[in-house]
TrEMBL record:
The chain crosses the membrane at residues 37-56, 68-85, 97-116, 123-145, 151-171, 178-199, 214-231, 243-261, 267-285. It comes from Ciceribacter selenitireducens ATCC BAA-1503. The keyword Membrane applies. It is found in: Cell membrane. Signal peptide: none annotated. The keyword Transit peptide does not apply. It comes from the Bacteria. Residues 7-139, 149-282 form the EamA domain. InterPro entries: Diverse_Substrate_Transporter (IPR051258), EamA_dom (IPR000620), EmrE-like (IPR037185). This is EamA domain-containing protein. Its main location: membrane. It is a multi-pass membrane protein. Keywords: Cell membrane, Membrane, Transmembrane, Transmembrane helix.
Amino acid sequence: MSRVQANLLLLLAAAIWGGGFVAQSEAMEWLGPNWFNALRFALATLAVLPFALTENKRATRPLSRRELGWFLLVGLSLLAAQTLQQIGIQSTSVTNASFLTGLYVVLVPVIAVAFLRRRPHWIIWPTALLTVIGILLLNGGSLSSLGDGDVLVILCAVFLAAQITLTPIAVGISQRPLALATVQFAVCAAGAGLAAAALEPISMGAVASALPEILYGGLLSSGVAFVLQIIGQRYTTAPQAAIFLSSEALFGALFGAVLLAETLPAIGYLGCGLIFSAMLLVELVPELTRRRATAAP
């Protein structure tokens, strides 16, 4: 597979994830956030499980308790992120949710600095400032206008950044990426299911009404897009992959405008542009710096 084809697969994955924001928003007409997460992650688990079983047959040893502990930690991070996002999307727009969720691109290196004691590239600090300004403009020029939904989605981005930081550690220890995917989806399904059973009513009629959104979230957003991501990242560089995948924010805004007729004032679109610029800069500048240093005599 060529790099161009791989990048197109990653772009398709990003488009699927962007559409997932619309599915998540629409499903809230019939289901509570925990029931939606429980059902879609149960489907996602079933979608990825055959690949994980094939991977397991090729493995030379079973998973250890330590590796399963790392998988559980990744799953709990994803569960916290998706719960906050799903609750938050009830009271914010798809456009806001897609761009605020994308903050994980900037937050991942910040977490590496804070917890892994890795020396940051200088671009981290200006992009962090650019992100704050973008959030400010996205919400009309005042942090006081941040709604509860926006705050929850920003917290979601923090937990997503933690999940992204932990994932390569877990995969590096186990060399079992598909097993990790299956376990983390199962953790999300179980955790959301327990919360849903305790807190939210449900009926078969509600499930039937939300079935297209559940299928999209479970099979496409999680199952298909995850496989596309794994395939694509085998044939392209990490910085290029991050750029194409972060375009899910743009696709989320596009689908929100086309399917839900969402609009933003001009200052809000400027905020979207600043946030997306920060996402690109935090990936591109370190890679360009590394290439120049390698090429220098």
